[in-house]
C-alpha cells in the first residue's frame, strides 16, 4: 500500500512555503498526501514561534499526536520550523515528548529526505538542527497548494533585530537568492500555469541579489521587480514584507513602471509612538511613516495599504497608545493585523522590566480593533460601484456560480460569476461591502 503523509503548518508564508518543499520531497519519495492526520504514516508539524499562542498550540498538537502514535506505533513523527531553532524548545521536546522521532530546523530542510531515511532504517530518534543558514540550496522540489498562484522566496533570514521579535534567531542572517534563480523559478511557475507570484522575504526592501558573490554589482528589490515584470504570461506580482526603514523612492517608482505589480503594500508599522518605535529598534518615527504613506498614495492613488500593529509593548503608556490610534486614523489602513505583545525568550524586550499587565493590553487591543475595523469598512465602502480585476481563486461547493477571489489591492471579493473561471483574472462589479470583504458580480 502507498505510504501517506500529513503536514500541519503554523506561522507565516515562509513556513507555508517550506511545507510545500517538504511535501514535494515526500512525493518524490513515493508518498501521497492525506488530509486525515490519524491515517498518515508520517506526520510533520512545522512550527512557528512568533507569539506565545503559537508555541502553546504546538504543544497541544503534540498531545493529540501521542494518541495517534499509541494506535499506530509505526507512525513516524517529525517536528521542524522556527520553534526548533531554539535550544530550550528542543530540550523540552526531547524530555517531555518522547514520541517525537525527528527534530530538524529551518536551515536544514534540504536534509529532510536523508534524515527520514535514517529514521526509517535505524528506528532511532534523531535531532538535527543547524544553528545558522549556510549556502542557499536551490532546486528543491515543491508541491504547490494552488495551481494558479505561488510564493517565491527571494531571500531568507532577517538582520533587523526588532527588540520584540524572535525571527532573527530562528531564521538567521539575511541571504538573497540570485536574480537568475528567482527568474528561472518564476518562469517555470508561469509555464506551469501560475498567474500570480508573491515574493517572500522578512524585509524584501533589503534584497541584494548578485550572480557572483565576489563582485560588487547587485540588483536591488526594485530592479528585481522590473526584471520579473518582463516575464511573458505572468500577470500579477505581490511581495511581503516590506520594512518602512528601507522603503526606497525607487520602489515607489516601480509601481509606475510595473503594470503587473499589484496595487497593494503590506507595510508593518508596529506602533504609532515614535518613543516606542525607538524602543522596538524599528529605526523610523511616526512622522516618517506617515510621510511614506503620503508618498505612496501620491504616486499610486489606488494603492491599498495594510499593516501589523503590536499593542502593549513594554513601557507603552496610554499616551503612546493614543499615538497609535492617531496614526491608524491618519494612515487610513485598508486592513491591519493586530497583536498583543508576547514575551519571546531570548529577545531584548523580554528582559524589559515595565511589562504591561494583560488586562490593559486587552483593553487597548479592543479599542484598536474597533478603530481599525471602522476604517476598513469605510475603505471597502469606497469600492462599491467600481469595477475591479479579480483573480478567481475558488468556487463554492454548493453553488459553482459563487466565486471568491482577490483584487489587485488584495481585498477579498465574494462574487457571482460564470462557472469554471477559477484561476482567471476577471472583471467584477463591486455591489456591496463588509468590514473584511466585498460583494460583486462578474461583468459580461
Ligand atoms: N518581517 C516582518 C514581520 C514578521 S513577524 C516585518 O518586519 O514586518 C509578523 C508580525 O508579528 C510582525 O509584524 C509583528 O507585528 C508581530 N510580532 C512579532 N513578534 C511579536 C511579539 N513578540 N509579540 C506580538 N507580535 C509580534
Ligand atoms: Fe522580526 Fe523586525 Fe525582522 Fe520583521 S524586521 S522579522 S519584525 S526582527
Ligand atoms: Fe513564525 Fe517563523 Fe514565520 S516564527 S512568523 S514561522 S518566520
Notes on the structure:
With about 450 residues, the chain is an alpha/beta fold. The protein has twelve helices and 19 strands. Strand 4 (about 75-80), helix 3 (about 85-95) and strand 5 form a beta-alpha-beta unit. Helix 7 (about 220-230) runs parallel beside helix 8 (about 250-255), helix 10 (about 285-300) runs parallel beside helix 11 and helix 11 packs parallel to helix 12 (about 360-380). It is globular, with a radius of gyration of 23 Å. The model has no long low-confidence stretch (mean pLDDT about 95). It binds S-adenosyl-L-homocysteine (SAH), iron/sulfur cluster and FE3-S4 cluster. The site of iron/sulfur cluster has 10 residues, from helix 5.
Instruction: Give the strand order of the largest sheet, numbering strands 1, 2, ... along the chain.
Output: 2-1-3-4-5-6
Fraction of residues in helices?
Answer: 25-40%
Biggest sheet statistics: 6 strands, parallel
Query: What structural class is derived from the secondary structure elements?
Result: alpha/beta
Report mean pLDDT, rounded to a whole number. 96
Would you summarize the structure shown here?
With 444 residues, this protein is of the alpha/beta class. It has helices at residues 13-28, 52-71, 87-96, 112-122, 167-171, 179-191, 221-229, 249-257, 274-279, 286-299, 318-331, 358-381, and strands at 4-9, 32-33, 42-47, 76-81, 102-104, 126-128, 149-153, 155-156, 175-176, 196-200, 236-240, 264-266, 304-311, 335-340, 387-395, 402-407, 412-416, 425-433, 438-442.
Amino acid at each position: 500500500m502507498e505510504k501517506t503523509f500529513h503536514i500541519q503548518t503554523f506561522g507565516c508564508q515562509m513556513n507555508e512555503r517550506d511545507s510545500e518543499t517538504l511535501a514535494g520531497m515526500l512525493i518524490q519519495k513515493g508518498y501521497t498526501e492525506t488530509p486525515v492526520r490519524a491515517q498518515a504514516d508520517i506526520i510533520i508539524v512545522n512550527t512557528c514561534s512568533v507569539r506565545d499562542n503559537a508555541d502553546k498550540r504546538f504543544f497541544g498538537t503534540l498531545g493529540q499526536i501521542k494518541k495517534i502514535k499509541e494506535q499506530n506505533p509505526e507512525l513516524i513523527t517529525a517536528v521542524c520550523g522556527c520553534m526548533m531553532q531554539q535550544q530550550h524548545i528542543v530540550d523540552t521536546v526531547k524530555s517531555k515528548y518522547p514520541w517525537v522521532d525527528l527534530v530538524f530546523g529551518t536551515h536544514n530542510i534540504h536534509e529532510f529526505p536523508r534524515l527520514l531515511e535514517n529514521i526509517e532504517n535505524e528506528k532511532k530518534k534523531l535531532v538535527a538542527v543547524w544553528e545558522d543558514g549556510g549556502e542557499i540550496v536551490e532546486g528543491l522540489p515543491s508541491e504547490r497548494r494552488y495551481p494558479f498562484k505561488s510564493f517565491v522566496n527571494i531571500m531568507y533570514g532577517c538582520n533587523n533585530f526588532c527588540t520584540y521579535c524572535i525571527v532573527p534567531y530562528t531564521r538567521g542572517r539575511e541571504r538573497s537568492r540570485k536574480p537568475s534563480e528567482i527568474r528561472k523559478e518564476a518562469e517555470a511557475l508561469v509555464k506551469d500555469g501560475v498567474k500570480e507570484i508573491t515574493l517572500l522575504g522578512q524585509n524584501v526592501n533589503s534584497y541584494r541579489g548578485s550572480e557572483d558573490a565576489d563582485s560588487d554589482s547587485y540588483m536591488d528589490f526594485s530592479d528585481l521587480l522590473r526584471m520579473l515584470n518582463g516575464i511573458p504570461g505572468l500577470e500579477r506580482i505581490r511581495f511581503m514584507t516590506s520594512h518602512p526603514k528601507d522603503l526606497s523612492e525607487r520602489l515607489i517608482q516601480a509601481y509606475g513602471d510595473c503594470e503587473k505589480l499589484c496595487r497593494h503594500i503590506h507595510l508593518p508599522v508596529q506602533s504609532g509612538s515614535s518613543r516606542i518605535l525607538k524602543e522596538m529598534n524599528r529605526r523610523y518615527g511616526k512622522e516618517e511613516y506617515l510621510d511614506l504613506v503620503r508618498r505612496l498614495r501620491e504616486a499610486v492613488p489606488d494603492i491599498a495599504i495594510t499593516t501589523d500593529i503590536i499593542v502593549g509593548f513594554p513601557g507603552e503608556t496610554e499616551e503612546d497608545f493614543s499615538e497609535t490610534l492617531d496614526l491608524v486614523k491618519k494612515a487610513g489602513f485598508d486592513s491591519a493585523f493586530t497583536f498583543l505583545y508576547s514575551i519571546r525568550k531570548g529577545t531584548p524586550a523580554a528582559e524589559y522590566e515595565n511589562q504591561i499587565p494583560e488586562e490593559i493590553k486587552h483593553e487597548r487591543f479592543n479599542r484598536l480593533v474597533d478603530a481599525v475595523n471602522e476604517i476598513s469598512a469605510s475603505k471597502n465602502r469606497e469600492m462599491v460601484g467600481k469595477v475591479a480585476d479579480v483573480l478567481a481563486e475558488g468556487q463554492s461547493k454548493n453553488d459553482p456560480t459563487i466565486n471568491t477571489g482577490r483584487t489587485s489591492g488584495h481585498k477579498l471579493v465574494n462574487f457571482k460569476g460564470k462557472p469554471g473561471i477559477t484561476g482567471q483574472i476577471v472583471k467584477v462589479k463591486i455591489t456591496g461591502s463588509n468590514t473584511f470583504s466585498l460583494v460583486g458580480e462578474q461583468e459580461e
